[in-house]
Amino acid sequence: MNKQPKHVAIIMDGNGRWAKKQGKKRVLGHSKGAKSVREIVEAAAREQIEFLTLFAFSTDNWNRPKEEVNILMKLLVSSLKKEFKRLIDNNIRLCAIGHLKSLPVLVQEELLFVIEKTKENTGMVLTLALNYGAKEEIVEAVKAIADKVKNSIISPEKVDESTIIEHLYTRNLPPVDLLIRTSGEERISNFLLWHIAYAELYFTKTLWPDFTKEDLQLALINYGKRERRFGKTSEQLTL
Ligand code: FPP
Hints:
Strand content: 5-15%
Shape: globular
CATH topology: Undecaprenyl pyrophosphate synthetase
Radius of gyration: 19 Å
Largest sheet: 6 strands, parallel
Structural class: alpha/beta
CATH class: Alpha Beta
CATH architecture: 3-Layer(aba) Sandwich
Order of helices and strands: EHHEHEHEHHEEHH
CATH superfamily: Decaprenyl diphosphate synthase-like
Bound molecules: farnesyl diphosphate
Number of domains: 1
Strand order of the largest sheet: 3-4-2-1-5-6
Low-confidence stretches: none
């Protein structure tokens, strides 16, 4: 049996479909989705998950209607303001990954404020992936390494896995153990490509606004039954 995963990452999908099913605007799905974020963050901390990473806004999400993008940004600012005290009460440290400089200034300010205020917290690390794309992350890392090679700071022969990790946005995160995607879609959608190399994948048909702490527990139980071999044989694991 696996013990609890150390790092859980979630692609929170299905807000729009949830709203459509209720005959409501997509926006309502996002605000209900923000409530699920609150429930799952607290539940994950209670389950002793050390790292929780949530895909909150991808680099491709800018292509959505302007009104929806604006509402998602506003929801982010209001959620950060509202949840700040709960993060402190639960000893949770907030981090963010992605091209943060292109986010609206208000989002950047609120984010930096909460990151700063929670930086001494020693409990779960909650990372929001915002304006995040894994291919872009790898391109940025390659550029930074190439620059160091050009300036003779690193020699090309010395470039290894750890050099790459050190230049990713996700450099402070351990590998993902369990990746959950809601809403029935079975895709990775450019999320954490490097860090999911050996992750267990868990897909559920439940739409994100309906995803509860009980659904998280089901995913953790399912993870506990998986055999993680990392290239070895089953027999080698039992030696
Ligand atoms: C996917 O549903 C969800 C998103 C693009 C955004 C996730 C945002 C939230 C859960 C709300 C606020 C977040 C935080 C961190 C407070 P979708 O719109 O793609 O759904 P669909 O595929 O059914 O259209």
